[in-house]
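Review form for a predicted model. The reviewer records the input and the model, then writes brief findings.
Reviewer: anonymous (R2)
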Amino acid sequence: MQGIRCACRRAGSVAQLVLGKQRHSLANPRWSRLAYQPIANFHIVGKRNAAAQSTQQKTVESKQTQTGQKQPVQAAKGAKGRVVSVIGAVVDVQFDEQLPPILNALQVDGRQPKLILEVAQHLGDNTVRTIAMDGTEGLVRGQPVTDIGTPIKIPVGSATLGRIINVIGDPIDERGPVNAEDYAPIHADAPPFTDMNVEQQILETGIKVVDLLAPYAKGGKIGLFGGAGVGKTVLVMELIYNVATSHGGYSVFAGVGERTREGND
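Model under review:
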C-alpha cells in the first residue's frame, strides 16, 4: 500500500482499500475502526470502484434504518403534528397517526419566515426527531407542524443560473422568485457506476502552477487547505471563470456558515 499508512484501534481489524486497480484486504469479521492517511501527498486520484458506488447509493437507506426500527407506512401529505421538544436546532415532533418517512420535510405552521424541519430519526411513541434548517428562536412546544410529504426540494435548470438560493430553495439575492419549472430533492442517489466515465483525464484549469505541479482530474474531488488570506477564494474564483470561458461548463458554489460570503463575491 504505497503512500498509505494504516492504523487500527486494536488488533484484528478488517481493512479494504482500493487505489486505482490495486486492492488490499485483511479479513477478520471483528473490526472496529480504520484510519488511513497519505504519508507525503494529500492529493490522491483513483478510479471509483463498484463497492464505493454501491455504498453511496445506499446513503438514504442507511439513514432510514439507523434506529433499528421498522419504518412505518408513509404518511399522507399534509399529516399534522405538534412540537414537543426544542433543543437548539434539534426539534422533536409528535404525530397522532402515521409518522413521516426519514428525510421528509416538515413545515412549522404560522411562522414567518417559514421554518422547515427535516426528519432525521424515529424515536417511537409517534415522535420524530428533526433538524431545523433555520434558527429556532421563538419556537415553543405545542406549535402545529405539517408534513410536506416530500424531501426538501430546490429549483433546478437554467432559471437558477446566476441566482443565490438557500438550502430549502428560497432565493436570498433580493432578485425576486426563481421561476424554475423543475425541482429536485436535495437527497439523491449517485449516478450508476455504469453511467460514469472511468477514463482518467486532466482538467486544464488555465493556472500554470496547478496544471504543472498538482493537476486536477476530471470527475475527481479536490481539497484546498490554507491559512487566512493566502488566496483560497481567489483560486476558486479563477477556477470558476476558467471553467466557464475555456470549457463552456457551469459551476455551482455551495457555502456553509461564514463561507456563504464568497457566494456574493
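Findings: The radius of gyration is 22 Å.
Further findings: The longest strand covers residues 116-124.
Recommendation: see findings above.
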